[in-house]
Amino acid sequence: MMKATDMRKLSRDARHERRVQVIRLRNAGRTYDEIAEQTGLSRTGVFDICKRHETAGAKALRDAPHGRKQGDGRLLDAQQEALIQKLIADKTPDQLKMPYALWTRPAVSQLIEQRFGIKLPVRTMGLYLARWGFTPQKPMKKAYEQSPAAVKKWLDEDPRHCRSGQGRRCRDSLGR
């Protein structure tokens, strides 16, 4: 006898298919033992599937929905989420008179508290931001508009940037 398949480890669709297969075989006149051997289920499992089908019909072969419903247990409703997302995308914190230069988890949390009176922990704020598609970004070390030629010229001409060992150019600019 082969080892019984653990239905819990199968996908939802695979479990449904297996149950439909059990009912087809039973309708074809097979015994519980024959079905169990052919499908890899236990005899008790086959019997339970047949009993479910007999009691509630074909709809009993589908799994019942599990877990919380989508959006259940969230502190912000859909309209509030949409407003915060729009503010984050369109404005910077300083435009909203907040003491931050960039949007951070604490900054967004403070915005939500100001607008709706709902205090969210930083970790929860990170989950909301990830769900909304806002990802953490590392700031660039070099400015986008930086011109290497202009920086070199500025460093060469401005006497405040003279370093020892730069020789004649630095002394000339200081008038020595």
What is the gist of this entry?
The protein is built from eight helices and no strands.
Which tags fit this structure?
mainly alpha, 52% helix, 176 residues, elongated
Q: How many β-strand stretches?
A: 0
Rg, nearest Å: 34 Å
Largest sheet: none
Q: Averaging pLDDT over every residue, what do you get?
A: 84
Topology order in helix (H) and strand (E) letters: HHHHHHHH
Q: Estimate what percentage of residues fall within beta strands.
A: under 5%
* Poorly predicted tracts of residues: none
Ends apart, CA distance between termini = 100 Å
Helix proportion: 40-55%
Overall SS class: mainly alpha
The best one-word shape is elongated
Task: Write up this protein.
By secondary structure, the protein is mostly helical. Among the domains are: 7-61; 78-132, no CATH class. The chain is 52% helix and 0% strand. The protein has helices at 12-27, 32-39, 43-56, 78-90, 105-116, 122-132, 148-157, 168-174. The protein is elongated, with a radius of gyration of 34 Å.
List the helices and strands and how they pair.
Blueprint: H1 12-27, H2 32-39, H3 43-56, H4 78-90, H5 105-116, H6 122-132, H7 148-157, H8 168-174
Helix pairs in contact: 1-2, 1-3, 2-3, 5-6
